[in-house]
Amino acid sequence: MFSHTSQHTKLHKTILRGEEQPALQKCKDCCSLYHCPFCGPEMFKPTIKSKCLKHLLGHRRRAIRHKEFFIFKCHLKCRTAPHFHCVSCTSTFMRKDGFLKHLAMCESKKPKVTVVELKSEESLPAPDLHLTASEAGSTEEMPVSEGHRSLISEGAQKIRRRKANFEQHLCPKRAVSEETVSQGPSHSETADQNFTGEGGVIEKQVRTEDPTISPVDEGDPSMVDLSVVDHNVTETTISNSAEADVAIQTLVNEMFSGHTSVESTIPQRSRSDAQDLCPFCGLMLHRKNLQVHLRRKHPDEVSNQEKPASAQGKNPKQQRLPLRQQQKITMESEIRDVFRHCIRFPVPISASVIADELVDSVSETRCITVLTRWSQCDLERGVKLRFSQRWTLLCKHNTIEHVLPSGTSSHIEKELLSCHSPSGTVHAVIREEAGHQYLEVWGQNGLEKTLDLTALNKHGKVYEDAQFSCLAWSPCEKKLLYVAEKKRVEPSAHSSANEDGGLVLLEEQDKNIYVEDWGEGLMGKSCPVLCVADLNKEAVIIYAGVPPHVSPGQALWAPNGRGVVFVGQWNEPFRLGLKFCSNRRSALYYLDMKGNCECLSAEGVSVSSPRMSPDSCWIVYLQGQVFGPHHQCLRMMLYDMKNRSTSVLVDVVRRAEKGQFAGIYESLPSQCWSADNERIFFSSACENNKAVFSVDRTTERVTQVCRLDALRLDDFGSVQLLAIQKDLMVMSCSSPNQPPCLKVGFLSSVDQAEDMQLCNVGGADVYEGFDWQPMLITPPSQEENHHFSGLNFGAILLKPYNPPERRKTPLVVNIHGGPHAHFAADWNATAAALTKLGFAVLMVNYRGSTGFGQDGIESLLGNIGNQDVKDVHRAVLWTLQNETTLDPDRVAVMGGSHGGFLACHLVGQYPDFYRACAARNPVINAATLLGTSDIVDWRYFSVGLQYDFDRLPTSQSLISMLEKSPIIHAAQIRAPVLLMLGGRDRRVSAHQGLELYRALKSRSTPVRLLWYSDEGHSLSKVNTQSDCFLNIVLWFKEHLN
């Protein structure tokens, strides 16, 4: 059945350690496809990577988990039939049952002695002792050596002491006095001591090298039998007497339930509904099954946690606290490890082509250098790190022939902004160190120039955010354009105004005047100015001529460097929150060197993302409406620099057919034009996915460039375009079970997308062990919005492959904030970690989410707290109906901001359905939030009311806000609620969560509040994310069990 050799060798290729993934590489010998590492080509034909990955998932489902190893079934030519390889030796087995028995025997060569039964001399004559050796279910008797006889004597002595202690523990009135035993007694002496008087059935685990004492069960004595097997831990046979059952049950109750033992020898039955958690895996079991579970599943852990029996007999409460602490420590360690594994994957944030050189003019071979920047979380230090990678591509006729290794990554330290010059010869960096900001210029010979921007004292802090910041080289590569805060001079009797207009002079009486800023995430940013650093003169100039009622940002150089084009945000009559809001009044302006400013776009609209074509003849930008939904479907506008005319290139999509282009919902990439100035490329949400599209400047036709099936990207749910330069596209691809990876490829024509070749150049090549599926759900007729009928919404379900034995999988409903946001089928560290910990995760894109057309967004206005709540609950019911492996009795809900608003609504409107809730910075009372939020306009539009800057609240409007708030359902909430609040949140005040906290505390509803005093609305710091995740999982495990 198997072949065996005693020599230990290295691990076979079908044995992987921990989370190690099988090596999957493109074949370079017989084909250009992928081979299965566990099957021969005659067993599994080479195929594309996506199909090979799915095939490997089947291997993983059939693999054997042994300690830290995954043992896959081998279909290679080691043997003629499929088989398993042993971890400890070179044995191979075809049958799984025989292999499992062999694994148990093959872990250690040292024999282990086990006391099975004890019987008095009076009831049975003393026979010759034998040792039993077992292998693969067969037994063989062997004579006992003198060394083993001494071990028997020592084991019998310890058994006697354990029996006496348990008798004293169970029946104090019948306590057995201890006898002093000298070291190394003879076999006969030991037998006389142990076989005298009444005894009990003893369960004992003895190691030859470490004879530690373990808990025992009391019963009647019987005969002695010893076994020698190749196990680290062996168990004994137990006689099923009534007193033994009482001992086991009493010990389990004391260890895990907190009950004290009853001084009675009469067996008492425990309640059938009494349950306790396993201290090692967190599984909830009946007390009568807990002891059996510990023996079968955790023998090693139990032996490591045991204390001397005398300590247990004297004070059982002393062991209760360490066990509970050990349970918590073990569970927390597992949760942290899983979250660390999922959050450690780097995420690409930008890419650019910095060099393009002709290597061979005959073969037209080019050498292209791509610079990519990544973000990565370091959980040990609690920081987000940034690093860069360079990739060298050898290309011929718009085809990538080779990708040269990138080498090691370079850590980016204290860098705010960076930009390569158009020629690629120099690189500009704005860096902050020791309270000073520096402008550095790097060239081929190292650092060429440095300007201390703080010492020049022309402006305040440089902006690095996504709403205002920029860093752009002039066409002559002698000037740099950026945005900074206007300089404010402290009050002084001798201060004077600066001639360039870059200073704001403060009088003595103005030192306490209130200064507005742009709200959440932009605190301290109030009056931005356009700055130009002249590298030849080593001076900074503040651009004059910007209208005082606008705040400039997102600037770029006009053709020939004769002026700048920028987006001006309206700051009158007062500033509203700008982050996550694409509905703020703004316009596109042109400012020349003489200070003349001209508006290029329409008035009364919202403008963002201006992008200049390579020939400097065209500008595309995004345009939306002012007020209304805070995030919306946008138009793409085209401005002709020569004719000074504007036209609509891509209009707002009201509704889209299934799988078709659904509109533009996010900013354009910094490099989005094709080399021929004819096409613009961008990424956008489309139902539950994110895809890359292009629009033809002449025909205005929108085409999905990277169809997942056409480019063999069907395993990816999200494709994000980072940059396109000279028709070389750099994209980030991911899915819920695949972390981001970087792919590059040339695209010469939209009609030839199927011929595009993509190369993987970076990122994680990992396939996590769980499944996901997107869903489109149609609400029933009674839940239709009659003003926007026929709308669908989406959801994404993540499920673990191997649910816990004999139990259905608990479901966690994850709800996004916004509400005008989107869950794409991309990598989500929180959802992935929850799934790896045994939860199924349902991420819902309710009506009002982006990616489904403008009608879906507008359908939510005036219907918050009703339509969105019903959509989420409908998605949960639909999922439970179609997925029978999910447990309808263990459903939890979580979300942040508007997602927390919906989570609290759900536990209030469906109090008997949801078992636990976790909410981050939730909206609890929209009426009281009106005066504290930085987006006061959304407070009105969300309940269906109009807003203007001079509007005052009325009793009717406040009543409408209150009626749509979760606080009115607080009295019905029975599910335990975990609240996580940021003390510096400007979007949703932390007092919102405190309001619900007090309401639940006063009604004795289980509630816990976590307060992060230095966090804002997003709770985005690494340490905060880790702490929130740990507490959420512990909260769900406690209350879902």
UniProtKB/TrEMBL annotation:
Instruction: Report the Gene3D superfamilies cross-referenced here.
Output: alpha/beta hydrolase (3.40.50.1820), TolB, C-terminal domain (2.120.10.30)
Outline the segment boundaries, as ranges, of region: Disordered. 126-149, 170-204, 296-326
Q: Where in the cell is it found?
A: Cytoplasm
Q: Which PROSITE patterns match?
A: ZINC_FINGER_C2H2_2
Q: Which BP terms does GO give this entry? A: proteolysis
> Which residues fall in a compositionally biased region of kind Polar residues?
179-196
As recorded in UniProt, its EC number(s) are: 3.4.19.1
Name of the top EC class for this enzyme: hydrolase
Q: Which reaction does it catalyse?
A: Cleavage of an N-acetyl or N-formyl amino acid from the N-terminus of a polypeptide
Residue ranges constituting the C2H2-type domain according to the UniProt record: 84-111
Q: Membrane-spanning residues where?
A: none
UniProt lists compositionally biased (Low complexity) regions at 316-326
Q: Cellular component per GO? A: cytoplasm
Q: Which GO terms describe its molecular function?
A: omega peptidase activity; serine-type endopeptidase activity; zinc ion binding
- UniProtKB keywords: Cytoplasm, Hydrolase, Metal-binding, Zinc, Zinc-finger
Family, as annotated: Belongs to the peptidase S9C family.
Describe, as the record does, how this protein assembles with itself and its partners: Homotetramer.
Protein name stated in the entry: Acylamino-acid-releasing enzyme
